[in-house]
Each structure stands twice: as C-alpha cells, then as structure tokens.
Amino acid sequence: MHFGRSSAEAERAKERALLACLDAHAEDIEHLYLLGDVFDAYIEYRHLLPKGFARFQGLLARWTDRGLPVTYLVGNHDPWHREYFAQELGVRVVPGALTTTHHGLRLYLAHGDAAARDGLSTRLRPWLRHPVPVWLYRSLLPADTGMRLAQWVNRRLGQHPPDPETATTLAAHARGLLRTTAATGVVMGHSHQPALHAWPEGLYLNTGCWHDERTLGRLDAQGLHLLRWNGTQTLSIEARKP
After folding, report:
1. Per-residue pLDDT for 128 more than 90?
2. Helix (H) or strand (E) holding 100
3. In whole angstroms, how far apart are CA 200 and each of 3, 35, 88?
4. What pairing do the DSSP bridges indicate for beta strands 105-109 and 98-102?
5. How many CA atoms lie within 13 A of 112 on its CB side?
6. Of all helices (H) and strands (E), which one includes residue 64?
7. Domain extent listing, the chain
C-alpha cells in the first residue's frame, strides 16, 4: 500500500479503496496477510506512532476482535515495529518469511526484498534490521526528525518505475524455493509488478502494488487468484489451480 507516499487527498482515496475492497471480501476471508510496505515509512517509538490511516487500523482491530487472524510481514519500508500492532490491534507482526498451509497449498510468504538485488537498498538491509543501529536511530534522533529522514530516504531510494530485473529475480528465487523446500506455493510483493505463474514445481504469485494498480491475491478452494479492485468489485486477472 505504501501509505504516506502521496498527497493527503490521494492517500485518503487509497485507504478508502482498500477498506471497500476488504469489506467486499469480509464474509469469505479466513486469514488476511499483509506482505510488507504497508507504510512508505514507519518508525514506532516507545510512546509515539506515525500519524494517519486510523480507519485501516480500526478495520484490522475489528477483524481480530472477532477472531479473524491478521498477519503482517514487514517490508523494506516498514520494518521498525515494536508492540503496537500486536498489543493494540491484535495483528501478528513477522520480521521475515513464514510458511503456512491453506486449502492444501503449502505457502512460503515473504515481502521479497531479501531476495532482490536493489543496489543501496539491499546493502542497507542488514543495518536496517539489526537491533543496535535501530536502537541508536530511535535514541539519537527526535521522533519528527527520524520520521522525516526516513521519508526522505524512502523517496530517494524507492520512488522509481518498477524494475523488470527485480521481478525476474524474485520469480527465479520463488522457483528455487519451490524446488528446494516443501513449499508448493510462493507469494511475495516488493517488485510492484503483479504476476502469477504455474510451474511444474508449484505456483508463484506476486501481489503487485496496491498503491499503483490496486492489485491483490486471494487463495481459495478453487486455486490462487490474482485480482484487481476496480472501485466496486474485484476482477480476476488470472487464476491457477494448485
């Protein structure tokens, strides 16, 4: 979603569209997975949080309150969570990849940045995930300064046209995982380029980017689906059976 990337008006419209899409699927959803870069920049301090997108967070809280699991795999733009999403919203926050099974498909889920080769962003990743630099950043910079700096860096590094090489790298990585692990399906984001492939080894879905194209993925008993929200309903781009 990259919440916070554009103007206030555009971000509110993006949030409204996401809420409408999730509400349209609410009766069927068994588990919601957020595959990272929910926020374009996110730094949670001990007593302070970035402002905005309370309606989206409220939906997550309502869903988890009624027993619907929500899992948030952080991305390269929003790794600096503490306990707020878990304690206040009931959302499970996962710092890396995870495996799970739904509808008979053994899924490997990740944001995808760990497999990409994105130049400076890739080189910075170990530092941005290590607890010592994260602690120093939070401790030495006032919250407003720290957040503004993070937003500036993300704008410098992250607001470029989708790189076809990144999509190719992630697809190759997914196929390697299908060959070498017990996974029968791999789902990632990061590339901003939606894709759905069926190989002899298994299925690969890239959910694309809600910010750019309003795309998402859905797994049900009929298979894995790549969808696009058109403002009133989700339209199938492609579907593959396990």
Report:
1. no
2. strand 98-102
3. 36, 25, 42
4. antiparallel
5. 29
6. helix 54-65
7. 8-240
Class of domain 8-240: alpha beta
Q: How far apart are CA 60 and CA 136, in angstroms?
A: 30
Phi, psi of 202 (to 5 degrees): 150, -165
* Axis crossing angle, helix 8-25 with helix 54-65, rounded to the nearest 10: 20
Nearest-angstrom CA–CA distance, 228 and 203: 19
Please tell me whether residue 242 adopts helix, strand or coil conformation: coil
Give residue-wise pLDDT tens across range 204-233.
999 999 999 999 999 999 999 999 999 999
Binning pLDDT at 50, 70 and 90, where does residue 4 land?
very high
Q: What is the DSSP string of 200-239?
A: TTEEEEE---HHHH-EEEEEETTEEEEEEE-SSSEEEEEE
**235, 228 Cβ separation under 8 angstroms:** yes
Backbone angles phi, psi at 114, to 5 degrees: -65, -25
Q: Note whether 154 and 40 are within 8 A (CB).
A: yes
| Spatial CA neighbour of 22 closest among 67, 88, 70, 65 | 70
Q: Alpha carbon of 77 to those of 63, 136, 155: distances in Å? A: 24, 18, 10
pLDDT tens-digit series, residues 59-95: 999 999 999 999 999 999 999 999 999 999 999 999 9
